[in-house]
Amino acid sequence: MDARTPSFDPSPWLPFESRRRARDEKREAVLRTAVHLFLEQGYHRATLTAVADRLNITKPALYNYFRSKDEILFECWALGQERVDEFIAEIGAGGGSGLAKLRKLIRSYAQVMATDYGASLVRFDPRDLTDKNSKIVRAAKKSIDTTFRTYIADGIADGSIKPCDTKLSAFAIAGSLNWIGHWFRRGGALSAEAIAEEFADRLTEGLAAKPIRRKAGPPPEKNKRSRGGSR
Amino acid sequence: MDARTPSFDPSPWLPFESRRRARDEKREAVLRTAVHLFLEQGYHRATLTAVADRLNITKPALYNYFRSKDEILFECWALGQERVDEFIAEIGAGGGSGLAKLRKLIRSYAQVMATDYGASLVRFDPRDLTDKNSKIVRAAKKSIDTTFRTYIADGIADGSIKPCDTKLSAFAIAGSLNWIGHWFRRGGALSAEAIAEEFADRLTEGLAAKPIRRKAGPPPEKNKRSRGGSR
DNA sequence: AATTTTTATTACCAGTTGGTAACTTATACG
DNA sequence: CGTATAAGTTACCAACTGGTAATAAAAATT
Prior knowledge:
Helix content of chain A is 65%, strand content 0%. Chain A is an all-alpha fold and 231 residues long.
């Protein structure tokens, strides 16, 4: 794990690279610890001293990597948003009907929500950020909402989705997905993938113009219930 | 921008007016102001001084009615929970299939979510409360979840709802509903009643064993508007 | 080995805010 | 009217916590 420069290293660049990498690694470690603690205790209750303690350093050391507590919060959010931007770009680049794109969106979004950085997209309060960053967050949220609505509208236009109120439908779907960030627990009864699959079906069942083709077997079977109690 | 309209003052403590209102009325006024401010600024950013200011009194005066800030928070939550308990009792007392009960539940829950006290059920963090109250909140949340699951299971049992994963279905529905507390704005384009109606349809469309009977006319039209609030 | 740069620590401060004590004023009541 | 009680106000504090020198230690560079 130690990326220290080997003494026999011929390149004068590698030391620099490794140094930079070490720094980035530490920065990331701070974020990982911070997002975890912020989620666990809540942003306001979680102190920087507590974050530092978990990293075996002291509070002022954190200021070598971040300028302020709210900057850390913002970076956590940004990492989650990055994931979202990625798959949205992917889906946008690919083809398919509006319904198909919507289902992809749901699947990907659900899986991101099941991660710490993903949860930070909905569990943190933008009002804790600077005005500037708060605006960025709001714009991103708006953009996600627009994506949902666009795909739904696309689906209505191409006939894959029944005519419906795009705004309310988008809210309904986004609500179910965002909620994942609140109840999902790693290692629980449900895997992120299973949730993603199920939600892609469930949340579009009512919207699909035609019944959704299942992977195998005839439509619904027995009551497949999962063991209760997570939360 | 829910404007603070200084044109009229809902506070019982009018600057130079008689101060002989009932104690309970004042207590309620504190809660109304507090829940509003807590939602507007977030619990931690909202100071008791700010709450008091809006009521034309000073911070220590608040302590005539409440013992602490977190007690105020808890009472706000409790008022919202009271509404929920009420309609859950009502629905439980009435009859109907599992699907019918579920739809009633969705309708009522959606409408409560569109109120300040309702939103406080999902916008406030139980970790800000004392351990004791925090437990009460968690128990209540669990109970709501159980209600959702029970109605779904009832529906499956009586044939009104297609076999499905009760846990995930409950989460999906609750998520959509809880999300209302985050985006709903009074005086916006959508009324609480319209949202409630639409959600009762949309969120059960995929679950219903048989197509839902609409109030009138053939299935979906473009941009259908649900009108006529029941209840 | 000496020097510069990076990284971490100790010590500390400032601003905020929930909460309290002492005191004052208004209302109810005998 | 005079007294008791409830309700408000002013003044204040204690504790917490984000953030900042000043400084030491470690690492890289020369």
